[in-house]
């Protein structure tokens, strides 16, 4: 029950398995980034998963020796505490284990590197903005995904013309809500919201996102 039938050397193997599983679990969650983890750090999330598995095994499986499970739990908690201490004392390690704030919108334009880093497309960015009451990208000076997964939005005092995101683009036909601009009218990218006030005859694709669909920029309607 306590020791099982394995030799004492098996305890060393348990430590190795625990460390390997911890690293593998963290690596997978690091790839998922902020889409899967909100309100907690990656270390906290890994700790919950790892402890849940270890505690569940010893609780449900009679053939799992108690000492083996206790050793796994001890190793997991020790790794987490050590990493937590090292992260706070060593900046390069913090950049690896902790998410930093990521720009999603700047001056009414969806930031392509930032949204790609968070594995979000333009529609998902617009969805997050609508949840905060944003009707038009021209209202937003800055929008950030914070390290904990929350969205921070800083609005312009006076909104500028931009891309309307209410109602959602996939719920309405393009016309008449998104009329195509004439050659001499301002162009607003339907993908990222970039506005080109004086388009040239060669303007076919958005220089920010390479999108090829344009509409007229509009001012936010408070009603």
Number of helices: 6
> Would you tell me which CATH topology of the largest domain applies?
CRO Repressor
Radius of gyration: 25 Å
How would you state the average pLDDT, rounded? Answer: 81
**Largest sheet: spatial strand order:** 2-1-3-4
What's the CATH architecture of the largest domain? 2-Layer Sandwich
* Number of structural domains: 2
The rounded distance between the terminal residues' Cα atoms is: 69 Å
Strand and helix order: HHHHEEHHEEEEE
How many individual β-strands?
A: 7
CATH superfamily of the largest domain: bsu07140 like domains
Low-confidence stretches: none
Give the overall shape, derived from the CA principal axes.
elongated
Class based on secondary structure composition and strand pairing: alpha+beta
- Level of helix content? 25-40%
Task: Estimate what percentage of residues fall within beta strands.
Answer: 5-15%
Biggest sheet overview: 4 strands, antiparallel
Q: What's the level 1 CATH class of the largest domain?
A: Alpha Beta
Can you give a write-up of this model?
This protein is α+β, with helices and mostly antiparallel strands and 223 residues long. The protein folds into two domains: 8-93; 102-215, 2-Layer Sandwich (CRO Repressor), CATH 3.30.240.20. 39% of the residues lie in helices and 11% in strands. It has six helices and seven strands. The protein has helices at 10-32, 42-60, 66-89, 91-97, 112-117, 122-130, and strands at 102-106, 109-110, 140-145, 151-155, 187-189, 195-196, 214-215. The chain has a four-stranded antiparallel sheet with strand order 2-1-3-4. A three-stranded antiparallel sheet has the order 6-5-7, with no helix packed on it. A hairpin with a 2-residue loop joins strand 1 and strand 2 (109-110). Helix 2 (42-60) runs antiparallel to helix 3. The protein is elongated. The model has no long low-confidence stretch (mean pLDDT 81).
